[in-house]
Amino acid sequence: MASLIDKIIGPRVDQTDLAKNGLRYGTPGFLLLIARVLLLVSLFVPFWHMELVAPQYPDNLHLVAYVTHLSGDVAEIDSLNHYIGMRPLEEAAQIERSIGVYVMILFVVLLEFASWIHSRWAVLFILPVLFFPAVFLIDLHLWMSHFGQNLDPDAPLSNSIAPFVPPVLGTGMVGQFKTVASPGLGLILSTVASAIMIIALFFHRRAYLPLVKAKKNTVPS
Amino acid sequence: MTCTRFGYRAMLAASVLAIGTASSAWAQSMNDVQRVAKERGLSTADLLAAAKTFTPTGKIDEYLIFSSGGHSGQVFVIGVPSMRLLRTIAVFTPEPWQGWGYGVGNEILAEGNVNGKENLWGDTHHPALSETNGDYDGEWLFVNDKANARIAVIDLRDFETKQIIKNPLFINDHGGTFVTPNTDYVFETAQYNVPWGAEYAPIEDYNDSYRGAVTMWKFDRKKGRIDKSKSFAIELPPYWHDIADAGKLVSDGYFFLNSINTELATGGIEDKKPPFEAGVSKNATDYLHIINWKKAEKIFQAGNTTMIEGFPVISLETSIAEGLIYLTPEPRSPHGSDVAPKGDFIVVSGKLDPHTTIYSFAKIQKAIANKDFSGTDDYGLSILNFDSVMEAQVEVGLGPLHTQFGPDGYAYTSLFLDSAVARWTLGGSYGKGTPEPDWTLVQKTPVHYNIGHLGAAEGDTVSPDGKYLVAFNKWSVDRFFHTGPLLPQNFQLLDISEQGTEMPVIYDMPIGNGEPHYAQIVKADKIKPWSVYPEIGWDPMTQAVDPWAPRPGTERVERKADGTVEIYMTAVRSHFNPERITIKQGDKVIWRITNTERAVDATHGFAVPQYNINLSLEPGETAKFEFVADIAGTFPYYCTEFCSALHLEMMGYFLVEPKD
Q: How many structural domains are present in chain B?
């Protein structure tokens, strides 16, 4: 067990090397720290916006998705959606929103672990966090297509609107509404965090791969 | 050096070129303007007036007029400078668009019952916005009903009437409503006097049995209601009391009240006695009443009052003994009594005297202190020597009525007989604000026609804005298309932003839905209205959430043990829930309905035929109405406010099964 943990953590850096090449060994950990901060901040800011544009709403209708909840003109959008038989927005992604905070904390912990690991196992800890923005958008798209394609056939205007899937980013049309979906600050921050993680992995490899190789060479197989 | 000079030339050439290009683009559009002006016969002055008033779509007005509706019993809200009617506020009169009296506001209308009898109209005269330190605060509006001596309280968060209070002592109150500088009191004065409580007494007993009075209604700002238990009245001689204005700043604590018919005429044209119009105008002067209301409040609080009709009244004897009321002569049959912005002058115009008379508050105080009296009236009130209290008289024109003020030392007086607005200069500390000499007529702008009151922007507060003035004209004669023999009144907007003689009429607005008297003009950004009610289930009568309000998921029809049927209904685009209600003939119905919308302007109506029900339910509002379903039948109820694409489908059936 101890040897497995040792194997995962990888080679230790000796003190004189660390003192001499502090920047080289510190960079990946520092970058992952930035990524963790960005992810924590993104928890508190909107991840995604949808703006609904129609003549009778001069200020437009707004839907704002956070990792944890929805806000904006949810009631008004639901009240319009009932005409076409769409389920209330609150019923979408309930599990995702309820575990959002814990997942984010888990991500932070994973990145924390990753910064202590000097072997290639670090990739395993970083990858799930790295793909988070993409997973968020895919999940959102799946919910939107599920909602848009499963309209109540008994709704008042069910005959006048064909099932639809508004684009998860960019513009679309539903009835008299133009939909304009755009990433929120949270999604941008988490995407930047992902980019930083890739850079961190690069510096991680540059710092620790020589140590791993050196260790391999000194230990007889 | 040459280089610099060349640089200058180049710049000059470039700027000439730029001006040339710009002016050709400008000329193009101005050509269009000139072409249209020519086609429509508009002068340059007309175009300028249009430019000053035209308010393109999406732009909001800078000021709001709160106007009485006269015997429409309503209040009108009008934007300035566009002069667009924004809203009618139902007050004393049922009004179906707002549901007022058709299921909404019925209890409030019933507060206005006169001796238990419904009086479903009013004669609104003088609206008063609530004030803080003598300036409009945009929170409340009060208005009187002259016909039955009632006062209404309107909440400017939702522009709805919240209270109607009937005066227990008198039945006619032209003089109302006026507020003290912090809206501690809203006061009201009797005009056509009657014995206390409007009980019977022969007209021959006029001098002894008929009584005048001013009622000081205590306003509880927190509750948004007049508190009758903390209100009182001051007995006055049976002169016809007219308009008053509360003192402010230096004169805070006093108010100044006009009177006519100090002759105590009682008419009798049928018996060859002088008709009122002659008898009332016989004397050259009437009395300006100077009343110390803060002292009166102390006397009331000390309990030195007589209960009359269950209401505390400070008797004339007490007033005389305590020095509460002083009189001074004023030109006969005056209409306006208006306190200048600093509270130092009181302007009174007798409509049969071409002068406006200005009294000095400092001189009044001095005369009171020195007991500088010219005598007493028949009821024992001391009369201050006119020459001791008068500051100035300005000849303004024929039929001067009411005065408003500008920020710069100008005063504006309406001239009924001249059909004009006079601009004249104040003296004293105001004198420096104007280029003209003190106490001088500067300009008379004709208006069309027969102006009554006038209103300048915040022109009766401690800080008038100037800029706009509206002439509230009684007759329009030839200004509009003749809609049969009943013609609209004419609100004329004047631009008073320039000094001197420049004071043109820039807009005519027909009032085809009432006969306004006074109006106040307030900066629009002082009013902070709700766009939707704060929460779903809001009761506008209590301005709080009603715990009984139906909510989504709680809709039901309940039959109580006593046979009462309670209906809990919600309304949202585009359905009512429930949609089918079956009850038995003779059932008592208590119907509650909530509009659960949160979108601005998503108002629903709710009409039930046969039973005279029609509500306006604004977003979030809940309403409750009751009736006995005494007529069996099939009654489709529906939404009366075009709410949505499926508005027609927003209906249901109310089925009343016959008794057997």
A: 3
Question: Is B105 in the same domain as B72?
Answer: yes
Do residue A79 and residue B599 have CB atoms under 8 angstroms apart?
yes
Digit-coded pLDDT (tens) for A154-193: 998 887 788 889 899 999 998 889 999 999 999 999 999 9
Query: Does B9 have pLDDT greater than 70?
Result: no
Is residue B338 predicted with pLDDT exceeding 80?
Answer: yes
Residue A213, φ and ψ in degrees, nearest 5: -65, -45
Among A79, A83, A159, A176, the strongest candidate for a mutation testing the B interface, having the largest count of B CBs within 10 A, is: A79
Chain A interface test: which of B533, B600, B642, B649 (most A C-beta within 10 Å): B600
- What number is the average pLDDT over the span B69-89? 98
Does residue B531 fall inside a structural domain?
Answer: no
Residue B599 lies in a domain: yes
Residue B193 domain-assigned (yes or no): yes
ipTM tops 0.90: no
Distance, CA of B529 to CA of B158 (rounded, Å) = 6
- Clarify whether residues B563 and B470 are in a common domain: no
Question: What is the model's pTM?
Answer: 0.89
Beta-strand runs (E) in B81-184: 85-90, 128-132, 135-145, 150-155, 160-166, 175-179
Q: Average pLDDT for residues B67-77, to the nearest whole number?
A: 98
Cα angle: A9, vertex A14, A18; to 5 degrees: 100
**B597 vs A contacts (CB less than 8 Å):** 79
A75·B598 Cβ contact <8 A:
yes
Q: Which of A107-111, B149-153, B159-163, B437-441 has the lowest mean pLDDT?
A: A107-111
Parent domain of B25 = 5-53
Per-residue pLDDT averaged across A50-69, rounded? 94
pLDDT higher than threshold 50 for residue B340: yes
How much is the pLDDT for A209?
87
- Domain CATH number, residue B326: 2.130.10.10
Q: Is B572 on the interface with A (CB under 8 A)?
A: yes
Q: Do B649 and A156 touch (CB under 8 A)?
A: yes
Residue of A73, A79, A156 with shortest CB distance to B572? A79
- How far CA B29 is from CA of B15, B17, B23, B50, in Å, comes to 21, 19, 10, 16
Contact B469, B412 (CB under 8 A): yes
Task: Kindly indicate the confidence band of residue B29, based on its pLDDT and cuts at 50, 70 and 90.
Answer: confident
Phi, psi of B134 (to 5 degrees): 80, 5
Cross-chain Cβ contact B597/A83 below 8 Å = no
B47 and B101 part of one domain: no
Does B565 lie in the same domain as B429?
no
* Residue B289 bridge partners (DSSP): B257, B327
Assign A20 a pLDDT band (cuts: 50, 70, 90): confident
B522: closest CA of chain A, how far (Å): 27
Give yes or no for B598 touching A (CB within 8 A).
yes
CB B658 within 8 A of CB B587: no
Q: Does B25 touch chain A (CB under 8 A)?
A: no
Nearest to residue A168, comparing CAs of A74, A63, A58, A73? A63
Nearest neighbour of A156 by CB, restricted to B598, B599, B646: B646
Interchain contact, A76 vs B646, CB within 8 Å: no
Q: Would you call A113 an interface residue with chain B, using a CB distance cutoff of 8 Å?
A: no
* Structural domain contains residue B533: no
Give me the pLDDT at residue B543, please.
97
Same domain, B471 and B489: yes
